[in-house]
Amino acid sequence: MTRGAPAPGLLLTHSDYRRHVTPPRHPERPARLDAIEGLLHRTPLWEALAHGTPDPVGEDTLARVHDRTYIARV
């Protein structure tokens, strides 16, 4: 059995990413995601990437990268 080459990476996307509200002119905003995806769609990389949607994580996993006080506040 011959397998194809593995994907060069994984692109995780979710519609909720575009609902993330940041202050005006902050780099993390929906327009940035639109621009990145638009550019990728025009290249062979879009088809080469594996695509997925992230699974929700629990508080213990979030606490690996965020303070629990911050998690509770959000």
Overall pLDDT? 89
> How would you characterize the largest beta sheet?
2 strands, parallel
Measured distance between first and last alpha carbons? 49 Å
Q: Give me the strand/helix succession.
A: EHHEHH
Enumerate the spans where pLDDT stays under 50 for 5 or more consecutive residues.
Answer: none
* Beta-strand percentage range: 5-15%
Report the radius of gyration as a whole number of Å. Answer: 16 Å
> How many separate helices?
4
- Quick one: overall form? flat
Strand order of the largest sheet: 1-2
* Structural class designation: mainly alpha
Percentage of residues assigned to helices? 25-40%
Structure description:
- The chain has 74 residues and is mainly alpha-helical.
- The chain is built from four helices and two strands, in the order E-H-H-E-H-H.
- It has a two-stranded parallel ribbon with strand order 1-2.
- The protein is flat.
- The model has no long low-confidence stretch (mean pLDDT 89).
Q: Characteristics of this structure?
A:
74 residues, mainly alpha, two-stranded parallel ribbon, 4 helices, 2 strands, 8% strand
Short description:
The chain has 74 residues and is mostly helical. It has helices at residues 30-41, 45-48, 59-62, 68-73; strands at 10-12, 50-52.
